[in-house]
Fold this protein.
Amino acid sequence: MMRKMLLASVLFPLALVGGDVAVAADHAESPGADADPAGDLADVFLFVSPENPKRLVGALTFGGRPLPRSRTDIIYCDPKLIYVLNIGRANAAGQFTNQPAIKVVVRFGKSDTGRCGVQLENVPGAGGTFSGATELVLTSPGGLKAFAGMRNDPFFFDAEGYNGMVAAFDSAAPPGGYLVNSFGLGTRARRDSFANRNITAVVFEMDLDVVAPVSGGSRPKIQAWATTARRP
């Protein structure tokens, strides 16, 4: 049996989807996911490569530790987990069916010596399944690159300001309002509570013409979501 664990957040580039940018995060959102850090998706990122406009970069992050807990310094390498990035395309009317046209599958495994490795399947434009050790840049038969390993959590969020704002709701709004007062907007540098808090990341290039092929002079809108599943 395969059990779907959770739905991750998505970041869409405006130029790619032709709509509003959607920004969200999903860290330790339920007791079940929190108890299984390797299966706890944090964020999904999609953006056009700054090095090659014909390539779309996808990234999945998971296994972080929510504040105020201590940071993690390990790569989660669980062979029983399957990570899937689902990508759907809008139809001619610009509507989504919520069915994936593409399913990129990521798996981890360990060698006889205990070295962690990663395998990527169905990466658009990759030219086949490719794999290798974590913490190294891998190249697919089609020339696309991928990486899996520990990185600083790219998610930006002021958790202290958010908690302060929620606590302030019990009282009358302070001068400037709840938002400005709690987050210090315009009065100090941005505060990132996730800075230097490690997370396991899988980052890979995709062929943009395969993900969202041009039709009638424009690309279709796309939607993306990620899931994890655990084998017994």
Summary: The chain has two domains: 3-157+196-230, 158-191. The chain has a mean pLDDT of 80.
